[in-house]
Amino acid sequence: MFKILEKQVFSPVIKQFVIHAPRVAKSCKAGQFIILGINEEGERIPLTIADFDREKGTITIVFQEVGKSTIQLGAMEAGDYIKDFVGPLGEPTHIENLGTVICVAGGVGIAPVHPIARAFKEAGNHVIGIMGTRTQDLMFWEDKMGAACSELLVTTDDGSYVRQGFVTDVLKDVIESKGKENIPLIIAIGPQPMMRAVCNMTKEYGIKTIVSLNALMVDGTGMCGCCRISVGDETKFVCVDGPDFDGHQVNWSELAMRQVYFKSEEQLALEYKECTCRNGGAE
Amino acid sequence: MADEKAKKKIDPHKHEMPVQEAKVRAHNFEEVALGYDEETAVAEAQRCLQCKNEPCRQGCPVEVFIPDFIKLVAERDFDGAIKKIKEKNALPAVCGRVCPQENQCEKYCTLAKKFEAVGIGRLERFCADRELQKGVTVPEVAPPTGKKVAVVGSGPSGLTCASDLAKLGHEVTIFEALHVAGGVLMYGIPQFRLPKEVVQAEVENLKKLGVKIEVNSVVGKFSTVDELMEEESFDAVYIGTGAGLPYFMGIPGENACGVYSANEFLTRTNLMKAYLFPKYDTPIKVGKKVAVLGGGNVAMDGARTALRLGAEESHIVYRRSREELPARKEEAEHAEEEGVIFDLLTSPVEIISNEEGWVTGMKCIKYELGEPDASGRRSPIPIEGSEFIMDIDTVVVAIGQGPNPLVPRTTKGLELNKRGNIVANLETGATSKTGVYAGGDVVTGAATVILAMGAGRTAAKSIHEYLSNK
Question: Which of A137, B5, B256, B381 is the most buried (most CB within 10 A)?
Fold first, then answer.
């Protein structure tokens, strides 16, 4: 059992937990993920590690409530226990000193970008952070990202905070002003359409772009192949070969197609939950 | 005694084990075979000739004292019988159900020369189930040796190795990647062949020996084998991580929605209990017509599971003929009784999907059998121009699994073969790395539960010797 030590609510649908998991905290690196299971009936939910404290033995996760399981997770409080918590899984992000690195974060993707930006900065890079959300209410971790990056640019799609525009708009400005030849690497993490848009743009500039994919998964250890995607000419397993991939090689339409595989079941699970909640948990 | 034996009239047939009726069981996840009752067990045990040379034992990878335990059953000493079995077999309730006895102990049974062999597996299961119902007595454990052993993986191989080492007084910790112990017994073999409650009962027995089980612990990730030895002061490590890497066909369209690896299909259903969705959160989607690619036991499990999940048609698509099916005869027969359709001498060349990426069919080619190949089986040759489209909407790929690379990849100095299997001495389990032993599917490639158990036992013996001299 894994204790939730702290809970923070960033918006009605975005929440942060600090979880006591010393084994994971001891060995995890930027870019890796965990899988958690709430209870006996729970599914295995993969979430990228947003922060860690090796001394305190804690892992921080930030998640958006999108379906039955994440809504259920979001209803848990500090002091509650999560049944299963396993990690670190996946390969860490490859960190090296390249000079300048741009880290682009969209929506809840701000959380996984955070430790990666910090690691690149610690490795001696000038890290330019670009973070954007749909609207001000969904914004979080501006302070943490500010500390993790050398400079930070913030935007909102609707202009309710700082400036109006997509992260791609900001990214374009930065590339144009710095010169594409001065930017060896871009990291982009966020919703799939955002990562895809970033990659479409950076491909034209010819700037290497790494994305972190969150495919559907079951075991997360390379055993089932549920998370397989085409990267270049090869089939890769996101759980063990990734989650980081060269965004210009990813077959985005295939990924999008596989992502909605269980859409009708997800709807059913939500309806079932609402039904059992209304009936006081009885079946 | 000899006269007595000669006088005894032997029933030529094995006592039937009651099974759920095929039409009924094809739509539920309850166990198919229901087990002997006391009277049937005793009567079956009385068929045993008690041969002095014990030929049956040479067919058993863990050398269970077969005639001895059967004699005790015949004498109605059921407690004595299970005790006798457990001297050699840590997982009798599992083995009684899933061992291919027809190729092992029962193959060598003297009765089998003229009649049907003694139902050794059925008797083993009877003894084990009776004990599980009644409450298990914990075998004796040797005084603590002060040595620590890490077992990586809690499948049949790891469980056996851990059990043997614990009985010898070593402090054993099993590290399991998933959230429950049991490995393939939990995620792979379906509930209707091996109830998960039975597996968990066997795991509980192991805990009573003092074995610690750490679930949610992926060795190679939270800690490497080297770190376990250097930082957590384990004196020896046994790697039994199994064949956890699914192979795909490598044909176009395999990443379409509706294509599962057998591992995914079975893991969702067995481990995550997707057949109880939405009470359990993990979903599974099965269409009307399912094609399972492959002809082994895993393929049979997949095809039978598909029926139980509501498929109208479930096909086994296999490129050789019925003769060459690698599955146990009994499994193929059960599948057929339940309505699984066998499309033999057939192999897919492409999976076809619609615009949204969903499987709508499979382009196949027919085969004929040619000369025997290196494996001694007649090799299948594609018939030119025989392509046709099979109308299906779900595909389960069950063409085999390779070794999971997480541990091999992260362990320094561990010799691997070309396929990525760990190289280990089959007589000792020793690897190229001192203090590190390996066995089961990660060494041999996908095989059977009992062979993995045998390897676990062999390694336990060598580890004990190694620790005693250390």
Answer: B256
Query: What is the sign, positive or negative, of the torsion defined by CA atoms of A77, A83, A87, A90?
Result: negative
User: What is the mean predicted confidence (pLDDT) over B283-309?
Assistant: 96
pLDDT exceeds cutoff 50 at A282: no
Q: What is the pLDDT of residue A276?
A: 74
ipTM metric: 0.93
**Sole residue written with tokens 């499309």:** B343
Which of A43, A59, A223 to mutate against chain B (most B CBs within 10 Å)? A223
Neighbours of B382 (CB within 10 A): 15
| Contacts of range B368-372, beta carbons closer than 8 Å, 24 or more positions apart | B369/B320, B369/B321, B369/B345
Instruction: Please determine, for residue A180, whether its predicted confidence score (pLDDT) is greater than 90.
Output: yes
Contact A127, A117 (CB under 8 A): yes
pLDDT at B190: 95
Q: Which residues of chain A neighbour B221 with C-beta distances below 8 Å? A: 27, 87-89
pLDDT at A278 (0 to 100): 66
What DSSP letter does each residue of B17-46 carry, written as one string?
A: PPB--HHHHTT--S-SB----HHHHHHHHT
CB neighbour list of residue A150: distance below 8 Å, 6 or more residues apart: A121, A125, A126, A127, A128
Distance, in angstroms, between A206 CA and closest chain B CA? 28
Inter-chain residue contact B178 with A272, CB threshold 8 Å: no
Interatomic CA distance for residues B462 and B282, integer angstroms: 41
Across the interface, which of B248, B260, B281 has its CB nearest the CB of A235? B248
Q: Is the pLDDT of residue B2 over 50?
A: no
The radius of gyration of chain A from alpha carbons, rounded to an integer in Å, stands at 19
Q: In the prediction, which pLDDT does B1 show? A: 44
pLDDT value of position A277: 66
Rounded CA separation B301/A125 (Å): 53
Q: Are B60 and B101 in contact (CB under 8 A)?
A: no
Pairing between β-strand B289-293 and β-strand B313-317 as defined by DSSP bridges: parallel
CA-to-CA distance for B84 and B107, rounded, in angstroms? Answer: 21
Q: Return the minimum-mean-pLDDT range out of A217-226, B8-17, B98-107.
A: B8-17
In the prediction, which pLDDT does B375 show?
A: 77
CA distances from A92 to A32, A104, A115, A240, B21 (A): 5, 18, 11, 10, 52
Q: Write down the pLDDT at residue B138.
A: 79
Cα–Cα distance between A177 and A180 in angstroms, integer? 9
- Alpha carbons A96 and A78: distance in angstroms, whole number: 37
Vertex A139: Cα angle to A135 and A143 (nearest 5): 145
Q: Would an 8 Å CB–CB cutoff place B241 in contact with chain A? A: no
